[in-house]
Design brief:
Helices cover 30% and strands 28% of the residues. β13 and β14 (279-285) form a beta hairpin.
């Protein structure tokens, strides 16, 4: 039998890339045969093949010693942990302050990596992680790219191209539009053909940024404009696709891993159905809904997509799963996924280490038969956001951060005590995950871990997460992508009864305790023949609250709340929510008169305040305009997400107090309306 070569050996012989050889084999241009599931190329066939001139000679396997992490926060810390274990030096850029590196500037990031003497670059997720031009620029600078080839990123990181490829492979997709013509008129016609409701999605990037649900034609133009703005800000690409909105499916994804020779495996599926604003909140593996037959369809589709584009490294193919068991391809994330820790917990693999090995030219080193998933893992994302105020982003100092520990608990944190959370980046602070031999144990461990977690100084979604993991629909594993819309906030019109009365009662008790704790900490006040009294104010989800509180001796509390005092403000953990208490300001005569007039006449001036910190992206109204309830007044942007501040009722605009581009704080007046 003539000498036979693997694709990588053939590539080295002719000075091409392994990926090029694999594409020539797949297209039939280069003759090869499968031996034990692997391609082998005969020397004679290679010698007779008229290959194109190689532009990038393939690199031989060599160890990686200095990794530049082109990211920040918890994923940068996660990559650093693996590099430290492997004895690899990590190089991290400044991402805050006047010397901060712009992580969306290709040339600046490559220049920084080169200046630092990096021999490899890990993009993490977000920013430029799925930018093919960035991958090429990194490699052109002589730095190894810890990620898939640029061609695979272009084929799959582009949602429109990925949908077309999936259909060509016979993999179902949701009805939609993924064409090149991006004119509003074309998209409006496509939406009419698809039928409402639809999803407007950026063609590039991921993480739910820029996505909008549109239920009627009259809202489409505004959704297109907003989607383009967010996509341009987050990914530098404003192209959009449209998809028919499926009501109530599950969101399930498959983790794949390929080496440079085309050997690939899957590491099972993850269920990411619990989402808010199209962003994941809770993920678990395996999915409670995926039977073996469905798992086979999902994993075969994911591996077929990876093979077709010559994928290398770690990637994730995402699908929708309906109650009939039908599977629809959504997109592929050509990067390490945020929720990769739960896959690591059940498989025992270190995906970052696998990425580094593959980028260094090493083979996968195991096959599908070697992949064994054990137990169950569940993860939640701790965000700097106010779940009780529509999940709006929050900013502020991290005065205290206490993370849980114990059997099966893993925390990937991006902040620590003393850090400052600004509106410049994504609001995710940490991921808290739990493994157990079964789903029930994993959920019980996660619930206990969240009860142990404390973050003081800024508002987070911790209290919401504690509530979420106790909900019957979550405990039973029945959540869909629209579950949160149906159950949160509890007790609001249109939401289902969710129990939780015991937790709400506990929160009320915790609030009473917090008032007393704050009174003792802040002191002051007096009263004849009684304990001294102090008038306190707290910034709650619904706005400022005031109360006169008697200063009493310390009660014998079983579990005193976590407290930190900074100046004249006491930050107290109230059932998972950091709440700032301070002595209330003296009564304001003008404010009292205005409130009395509004109450007496039912139409006094109403001040519209910023519900979150951020930048003023647009001002939609002018002084003298007549507005109706729900009309947009100002659009704010924070953490690359937009939020429209609307009129609470009909009236005439008497003041506009901000301008486009201005930075505002939460609670800052934006406009005044005369009812």
């Amino acid at each position: 039998m003539p000498d036979e070569l693997s694709p990588s050996e053939a590539a080295a012989r002719i000075g091409a890339t392994t990926r090029s050889v694999q594409r020539w084999i797949a297209s039939g241009r280069l003759q090869a045969r499968r031996v034990g599931g692997r391609w082998r190329v005969a020397s004679g066939a290679l010698d007779a093949f008229g290959w194109p001139a190689a532009t990038n000679p393939v690199a031989t396997a060599s160890p990686i010693e200095r990794v530049f992490v082109a990211n920040r926060g918890e994923i940068a810390a996660r990559i650093r942990r693996t590099c430290d274990r492997l004895g690899i030096v990590t190089l991290a850029p400044a991402t805050g302050g006047p010397k901060a590196l712009d992580l969306l500037d290709v040339d600046a990031v490559v220049a920084a990596a080169t200046a630092a003497g990096a021999d490899a670059l890990h993009p993490g997720f977000g920013f430029l992680a799925e930018n093919a031009t960035f991958a090429e620029a990194v490699q052109a600078a002589g730095i190894r790219w810890i990620g898939p080839p640029a061609a695979a990123i272009r084929a799959m990181g582009d949602k429109a191209a990925a949908r077309r490829l999936a259909r060509r492979l016979g993999i179902p997709t949701v009805a939609g539009y993924d064409g090149d013509d991006q004119a509003d008129a074309t998209l409006i016609r496509a939406a009419r053909r698809i039928g409402y409701p639809i999803l407007v999605k950026p063609a590039a990037g991921g993480g739910g940024k820029g996505m909008r649900t549109v239920r009627s034609a009259r809202d489409l133009r505004e959704a297109l404009a907003g989607g383009r703005r967010e996509a341009r800000a987050a990914f530098g690409d404003e192209r959009l696709i449209l998809e028919r909105l499926l009501e109530g499916p599950r969101h399930v994804e498959v983790q794949i891993l390929f080496d440079g020779e085309g050997h690939g495996v899957h590491l099972g599926e993850r269920d990411c159905s619990i989402q808010r604003r199209h962003q994941k909140v809770l993920e678990e593996t395996p999915s409670p809904a995926v039977r073996p037959t469905i798992r086979r369809r999902l994993t075969e589709a994911a591996l077929a997509l990876g093979r077709e584009v010559g994928y290398v490294g770690a990637g994730t193919c995402e699908f929708l799963l309906d109650d009939a068991g039908e599977v629809f391809f959504l997109e592929m994330n050509t990067r390490l996924q945020v929720e990769h820790p739960i896959t690591e917990l059940v498989t025992g693999r270190d995906l970052v280490a696998d990425q580094i090995r593959i980028a260094a030219g090493e083979p996968l080193g195991f096959d599908q038969r070697d992949v064994r998933a054990t137990g169950h893992a569940i993860e939640v994302r701790l965000y700097a956001e106010d779940a009780e105020a529509g999940f709006l982003p929050a900013t502020g100092p991290v005065l205290t951060a206490e993370w849980p520990s114990g059997d099966g608990i893993r925390v990937d944190a991006g902040v620590a005590t003393g850090d400052e959370v600004t509106g410049r980046f994504d609001p995710m602070l940490a991921k808290i995950a739990a493994w157990g031999p079964d789903r029930r144990t994993a959920l019980e461990r996660l619930t206990a871990a969240l009860d142990e977690t404390i973050v003081l100084g800024l508002t987070t979604n911790l209290r919401f997460l504690r509530w979420l993991v106790r909900q019957p629909v979550v405990v039973r594993g029945q959540a869909r992508i629209d579950t949160l819309d149906a159950i949160w906030p509890p007790g609001s019109p249109g939401t289902a009864a969710t129990g939780g009365g015991g937790q709400r009662s506990a929160e009320a008790t915790a609030m009473d305790t917090a008032w007393s704790t704050a009174a003792r900490a802040l002191g002051g006040g007096w009263r004849l023949n009684g304990p001294p009294v102090v008038r306190l104010q707290v910034e709650a989800a619904a706005g400022p609250e005031e109360r006169s509180v008697a200063i009493t001796d310390d009660p014998e509390e079983a579990v005193p709340p976590a407290v930190v005092q900074v100046g004249d403000t006491v930050h107290i953990d109230v059932a998972g929510r950091s709440m700032p208490f301070r002595v209330a300001a003296p009564p304001d005569v003008d404010r009292a008169a205005m409130a009395a007039a509004a109450h007496a006449h039912g139409g006094g001036p109403v001040t519209i305040s910023a519900p979150m910190p951020g930048a003023v992206l647009a001002v939609h109204a002018a002084v003298g305009d007549t507005v109706a309830a729900g009309d947009p007044l100002v659009t704010l942007e924070a953490m690359k997400m937009e939020h429209a501040v609307t009129a609470p009722g009909p009236g005439r605009v008497t003041e506009i107090l901000v301008t486009t581009g201005q930075q505002v704080n939460r609670g800052q007046p934006l406009a005044t309306i005369e009812g």
